[in-house]
C-alpha cells in the first residue's frame, strides 16, 4: 500500500503540493485523482515513484519510508507508474520494449509477456514491429503492457487517454477496467466523467490540495464537480 501523509512538495522554491494525505491499498480496484491542469496530479505520481522528494511529510510504500528507497526498489515493492510521456524506446521492437519492463522479474518474463499478449492481442501481432511505427493507441497499450511486465500490485496511469481519439480512448479504458479486476489501478485523468465513473474512490485535487475525497459516484454527483468539471 502507498500512503502520503501530510506532504508538501516543491520545485525549487515554488511549492506545488500542500499538506496532502492520500492512500491507495491493494483492496482498492480503481482510485482516481482528478483535477485541472497544473493541480499537481503528475507530481504526486512522481513522488510515489521516488522520482521527486517531499519537503515535509512522509511517503510510505508498503510500510517503508520512500525517502530510503530508490525508484527501482519502489517498482520491486509493487508500485509501477506509466508516465504521461509513455517513454517508449521507439527504435526497439514491441517485444524488446516489453522485455525492458520486466527488469525486476526476468525469471517469469515469458509467462508475464503471454499475459500481456492475452490482454492486448495487437501487441502480439505486432511484436516484431518498431514501437515508433505503432499508432498512438497502440503505443499507449504498449506503455501499459510494459508497466504490467513489472508485475505491479498497484499500476498508476498518468493521462492514459492523452492524445487519443474518443473511440480509441474507449478501448483503452475498457482494458483498464479489465486490468482493475486483477490489480489496483491508480488513475490520473482530465476526463473527469470517465475517471470518476470507474473509480471506487476518488480525490479531487485543486492547486496542490485535496479539496474533496469520496466514492467516484459521490464526487460525480457533487455540485462542485458538476459545476466546475462536467
Ligand atoms: P497536467 O495535467 O497539466 O500535467 P498536473 O495536475 O499533473 O497537470 P503537475 O504537472 O503535477 O500538474 O504540475 C503541478 C505544478 O508544478 C504546476 O504548477 C506545474 O507548472 C509545476 N511543475 C510541474 N513540473 C515542474 C518542473 N519540472 N519544474 C517546475 N515546475 C513544475
Helix and strand topology:
Elements: E1 2-11, E2 14-24, E3 30-34, H1 41-48, E4 56-61, E5 64-65, H2 71-77, E6 79-82, H3 94-101, H4 109-119, H5 121-125, H6 136-149, E7 154-158, H7 166-180, E8 184-189, H8 192-197, E9 201-206, E10 209-214, H9 216-220, H10 223-229
Adenosine-5'-triphosphate binds next to helix 1.
- Helical content class: 25-40%
The helix-strand sequence is: EEEHEEHEHHHHEHEHEEHH
**What small molecules are bound in this structure?**
adenosine-5'-triphosphate
Shape: globular
Radius of gyration: 17 Å
Please give the alpha-carbon distance between the first and last residues: 31 Å
Strand residues, percent:
25-35%
> Helix count, per DSSP?
10
Secondary structure category: alpha/beta
Brief account:
With about 230 residues, the protein is an alpha/beta fold. Helices cover about 35% and strands about 25% of the residues. It has helices at about 40-50, 70-75, 95-100, 110-120, 120-125, 135-150, 165-180, 190-195, 215-220, 225-230; strands spanning about 1-10, 15-25, 30-35, 55-60, 65, 80, 155-160, 185-190, 200-205, 210-215.
Amino acid at each position: 500500500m502507498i500512503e502520503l501523509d501530510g506532504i508538501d512538495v516543491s520545485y525549487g522554491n515554488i511549492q506545488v503540493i500542500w499538506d496532502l494525505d492520500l492512500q491507495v491499498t491493494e483492496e482498492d480496484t480503481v482510485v482516481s485523482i482528478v483535477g485541472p491542469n497544473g493541480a499537481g496530479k503528475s507530481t504526486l505520481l512522481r513522488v510515489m515513484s521516488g522520482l521527486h522528494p517531499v519537503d515535509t511529510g512522509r511517503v510510505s510504500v508498503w510500510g517503508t519510508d520512500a525517502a530510503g528507497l530508490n525508484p527501482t526498489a519502489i517498482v520491486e515493492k509493487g508500485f509501477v507508474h506509466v508516465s504521461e510521456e509513455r517513454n517508449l524506446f521507439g527504435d526497439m521492437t514491441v517485444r524488446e520494449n516489453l522485455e525492458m519492463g520486466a527488469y525486476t522479474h526476468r525469471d517469469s518474463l515469458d509467462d508475464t509477456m503471454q499475459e500481456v499478449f492475452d490482454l492486448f492481442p495487437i501487441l502480439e501481432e505486432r511484436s516484431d514491429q518498431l514501437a515508433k511505427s505503432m499508432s498512438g493507441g497502440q503505443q499507449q497499450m504498449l506503455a501499459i503492457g510494459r508497466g504490467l511486465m513489472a508485475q505491479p500490485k498497484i499500476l498508476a496511469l498518468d493521462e492514459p487517454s492523452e492524445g487519443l481519439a474518443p473511440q480509441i480512448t474507449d478501448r483503452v479504458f475498457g482494458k483498464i477496467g479489465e486490468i482493475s479486476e486483477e490489480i489496483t489501478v491508480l488513475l490520473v485523468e482530465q476526463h473527469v466523467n470517465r475517471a470518476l465513473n470507474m473509480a471506487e474512490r476518488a480525490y479531487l485535487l485543486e492547486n496542490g490540495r485535496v479539496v474533496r475525497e469520496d466514492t467516484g459516484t459521490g464526487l460525480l454527483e457533487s455540485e462542485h464537480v458538476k459545476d466546475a468539471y462536467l
